[in-house]
Design goal:
By secondary structure, the chain is an alpha+beta fold. Helix content is 47%, strand content 14%. Strands 10, 11, 12, 13, 14, 15, 16, 19 and 20 form a nine-stranded mixed β-sheet that branches. Strands 1, 2, 3, 6, 7, 8 and 9 form a seven-stranded mixed β-sheet that branches. β8 and β9 form a beta hairpin. α11 runs parallel beside α15. It is globular and about 100 Å long. 48% of the residues are buried. The structure holds adenosine-5'-diphosphate and magnesium ion. The site of magnesium ion has 3 residues, from loops.
Amino acid sequence: MTMTNEVPKLFGSLVFNETAMKDRLPIATYKAYKLAVLEGKPLDLEIANIIANAMKDWALEHGCTHFTHWFQPMTGITAEKHESFIAPTAEGRVIMSFSGKELIQGEPDASSFPSGGLRATFEARGYTAWDPTSYAFIKDNCLCIPTAFCSYTGDVLDKKTPLLRSMNAISKAACRVLKVFGIDTIRVNSTVGPEQEYFLVDKEMWAKRKDLVYTGRTLFGAKTPRGQELDDHYFGIIKQRVLGFMKDLDEELWKLGVLAKTEHNEVAPAQHELAPIYSFTNVASDHNQLTMEFMKRIALKHGLVCLLHEKPFAGVNGSGKHNNWSLSTEEGLNLLDPSKTPYKNLRFLVFLAAIIKAVDEYQDLLRVSVASAGNDHRLGANEAPPAIVSIFLGDELTAVLEAIAKGEVYDGNPQTYIKVSDDTIPALVKDNTDRNRTSPFAFTGNKFEFRMLGSMFSIAGPNIVINTIVAEALDYVAGKLEDSADLEADVYDLVKEIYTEHKRIIFNGNGYADEWVVEAEKRGLLNLKNTPEALPYMASDKNIALFEKYRIFTAAETKSRVNILLENYTTVLGIEGATMLEMLHKDILPAVSCYTKDLIRIAMEKKSLGIEPGAEVDLAKRLSSYTDAMYKASLKLAAALEECEKIECPKAKAEAFFEKVFSAMTELREAADSAEALTGGKYLPYPTYGELLFGVNE
Ligand code: ADP
Ligand code: MG
């Protein structure tokens, strides 16, 4: 039990953070470290040796025996290989040692991590390099050092390296723009606060469902009489067992320095959300990985399983991740704060215009950055933003830009107040963005919220894209304004030019409406409906050129990433298809047949007594026809899986999986769910949707 007044002491207690460093490093070493971080330069070995030694002493005091380079390969999750601190002495004993070299660089065997064809298997060596901007921390008595991961030849094999590069790119470009406005700052940081959605289900029930165990989502399951229709779960009272989980989770995350802030129930039954306070993007990305990992392990302690899949249950809201993103200077100035009078805030207008241009020009990359088999179930399904990328600005900012485009002076009411009551409660300033929930890329007061991410995603990918595309647009605007003689006039001209050219991307209406799909097509916006359709866009000439220009990925790296993502898509569908077949033959068919047999027996017995067995015969007939339909669909699915597996080209293979495997899966599920709905409860081989979703009662 933690007393509440201990939280500040608890916070960051397992992190080698500023405080620990200041306490334990000689002042000169600490300063050299800070400078290296600020300038993005490597540490020299002497300094690294001193830091490593202090880190080791700190870790040993906290009970560590091992250290690991903690990295994020392209599997989307984290990887670690534990090494002990022991080093033999001449006397046949051991001492605990940790050198600067071991801190800065590691050499894990990389042969089993996806490289998309970049690395030949004979060259299995990979390198990990310390990211000194993300603090080392302790997990399971192991000192974890956040690192970037690359191959022997320098090819990028992870999500961290390009993220750091994209942060440097946007910093440079933003500093250039700020200089135009007379602001000299050494660095601009992109900041992110990712809101994480998840489901909790009872562990014993989970274990009975092969689909949840193997694939993280249900592949079968008839609808419950009650889903989320009553809207009573969102922000509803949190159940005791879940509260216990949330409390433990907060504590563990706080120890790791994760700023877990808000925990609440989400729309669907058994669905919840955690939002942290925002931090620098690389730290937010590391912390989000830790958050997901700890959600899973702490759930188990409470007899629960945490589902991070984007769509664990058909017909019920899925889970996403809202990526709140902004830019701030080293001094803490939020560059997306419009102030009270955005029309007069030239600097804000320039940053806003750059983002509009970037999002319009690189709709495809943003869409690709959120493409996955799991997320295909959400995007465009009226529960998450559509697959079409657009920007929500709200009425006021749109009016400001419209005025500028017409060459008019905006003189609208800059701030409106919502009056809550006459005296006791003070008036609330109305957010100048009135909370449009259906927009994929929404301006929400002083930041943009990219809402298309799936709940399982590493946030690295989408933020690499946002940072890089905005960096390019900022370089463009800097180029236009750097030699300006009349900054005000030139800014308005530039904003007018950009807004006029890119206003098609702005949409303040309802993104779930069918009319928007038609309207978006008229505007020429992309609507990439599924993963196999979206992914190839990543390797277009335009996008390869962008990544090369900002040294994020080489052309080969971009292409390899597309292949990894395509392969991932087909692998996921392959596993899902195979799991369906196994469940059908091992569980569903025997259960339905058993019930049918019993119905037939009853019918025969009734008949022998002269009772007309109408219901039993009818039910048995209907179940038989579903059994046939299931069986036929299963043959189709098996054939589709076999045929599609043979395709060599990753793109053609992913398309074939979508067309053949996915459609056969849908057909099989329809028949099986109809059968399940008619089958007696005691015959069912696994817990139903109702039991899973409403099963955690206490
Ligand atoms: P909502 O559910 O209304 O979208 P939340 O409070 O749940 O809002 O989440 C908002 C998220 O935005 C939080 O993680 C918060 O820290 C983050 N955020 C706030 N300001 C910034 C900023 N300047 N940069 C990045 N993220 C931010
Ligand atoms: Mg949100």
